[in-house]
TrEMBL record:
Keywords: ATP-binding, Kinase, Magnesium, Metal-binding, Nucleotide-binding, Phosphoprotein, Transferase. Residues 617-647 form the PLD phosphodiesterase domain. InterPro entries: PLipase_D/transphosphatidylase, PP_kinase, PP_kinase_C_1, PP_kinase_middle, PP_kinase_middle_dom_sf, PPK_C_dom2, PPK_N_dom, PPK_N_dom_sf. One of its GO terms (cellular component) is polyphosphate kinase complex. This is Polyphosphate kinase. The gene is ppk. GO terms for molecular function: ATP binding; metal ion binding; polyphosphate kinase activity.
Amino acid sequence: MLETSMADSGLGDADDDDFDEIVEAYDSQLPEHRYLDRELSWLSFNQRVLELAEDPTLPTLERANFLAIFASNLDEFFMVRVAGLKRRIMTGLAVPTNVGRAPVEVLADISTEAHRLQLRHAEAWQSLVRPDLAAAGIEVVSWDGLDAAARESLYDYFHAQVFPVLMPLAVDPAHPFPYISGLSLNLAVRIRNARTGRQEFARLKVPSMLPRFVKLPGDDGPTAKYLPLEELISNHLDDLFPGMEVLDHHAFRLTRNEDVVIEEDETENLIQALEAELLRRRFGPPIRLEITDDMDEVTLDLLLKELDITEQEVYRLPGPLDLRGLFDISRIDRPDLHYPPHVPTTAVAFQPGDNNERPDFFSAIRKGDVLVHHPYESFATSVQAFLEQAAKDPHVLAIKQTLYRTSGDSPIVQALIDAAEAGKQVLALVEIKARFDEAANIVWARKLEKAGVHVVYGLVGLKTHCKLALVIREENGVLRSYSHVGTGNYNPKTSRIYEDFGLFTVDAEVGRDLTRLFNELSGYAIEKKFKRLLVAPLHLRKGLLRLIDKERRNAQAGKRAHIRIKVNSLVDEQIIDALYRASQAGVKVDIWVRGICSIKPGVTGMSENITVRSILGRYLEHSRIFLFHGDGSPQAFIGSADMMHRNLDRRVEALVRVVAEPHVAALHALFDLAMSEGTSSWWLGPDGEWTRHARGEDGKPLIDMQDKTMAGVQRRRRARAVR
């Protein structure tokens, strides 16, 4: 059980029961239809990604990358969100909806909007990005556009590299309809038996281990031509079905339910139960069928019947399907078609000394809290290097860390292994239920165990999502705690593209907080006292509600009041209602959200003091920040929690209070830049529509916040070097 004492956190001003009654009374005064639909809001987020792909001012290969991101995002949306809605409807479970509509209506709206967006996505590729790539010398061509020499060279490639791995599967009385794996690209082939005259059906899976776009042989240098793999295969079907007449062929792609559901209370071995559920995931029911727009009704009817899928779940699109393959195209080495490089700098506190000697992280942190901002400031030379030094330091006695998403070859994992092998006490709290990383997490969790690391899997019924590291070091006979609390995963790969904050501190209160929290996560301790942390699932929401309500009361008393929140998603109704009440009292509320946002800003009498912005770009905005004016005594928090039910009710999350004035000022300065009308961003209206503001009234581009942030970090580093 996780509890945070509000009094100890400085957040308790009233009895809990009294506070709940006040909240309930205020909520009853708010309009009924005051939330935006969360699923449609997510689709709006993916539309913002698509708008980046459509922007001709962005580098062309980056636009191709955004098209691939859109496709990948939408796949996950169907596999998890849409699948979850369907599962709950079919099993009779309650389907939570904050917009007062029947779940079937919500699914219909999702289908309508998803159809529109997928057609827009296909059009963006065909009419915008593909021609611009061709103009730059990177052509994605069709078979019909190739000359005889190119076709001959591709024929040789097909027989040498592709033909041996293809597996055509016939469908007839002796061969049942084959299993179609989720997200696989397939060809539906209709053939006629030349001997009997009978028409047959065959399914051919496009091998996922081969390049999605085949580079034409002989094309070297900065310009090249590429052919979609399915076109290469479909134009050599006669070689796969000798003696048969190929009548027709069409590409199709199936999406399955891949949400994982485990009843932890009913299982004795979590890993074994998860492994069984991952096996079941492969055979989840179909939820979306993508087909090329030229597919005939005979083939479609067969697919609908065999896959047990409805017309509403069919997405008829111009080819090529599965534009996730554009990730490969976007990695082509053409610097002129990419963003100008940003080189992360080392945080000032961790930079080498005058003689270029290696930094001593413990000494640097003892001088004062250190706030690092990734990827502008390097993860490798801060978090990673800190843990590597701790693993080797003979004075370090113990390391405790949470791991949500990382990789088996990660230097973070290796540092923990090195520490354990050096005889240190090492605890790794591994969240093996991190969605789509489950199998990989099981593998490296076992690797850690074999090295002597104490591996635990958190609390039953909860995901451990907080980002915490604690190093215990003996110094002059006294144990000192060095803490790191972050907003992002301990993953060196994603740290290069995810924007996140991390706080290093030797503050004794934070050290005790983390010690108590780790004890609760790994054992049976029941801890109620945290000084600088807000911890979910029991009291993080309530702590934030109290802070929001304090701003409301300050505004009512005529004092200055201001709330600023940066999250990936804002859905939780209690938080939203508290912000509405604050706005009604005159509190200025700035919301900076990347993805889902269910709050309606700018509604007269309810939210006219609420402003919502979204920023998307080369980096994925991932940090969570909570800032409160506090009548001149500001409260600032960073951490792992989004404002969603799952984060506040079903996960272990932690926010840490940032106390150093320069750090609080830096967080406010970042907000000032993000909310400025001179910064390129999307603005949310009360109707749920997002409007992009990328150019000023003079037609000139607005400030790119990420570019300006990188420039500021590098400028500070140069200034230190001069000193």
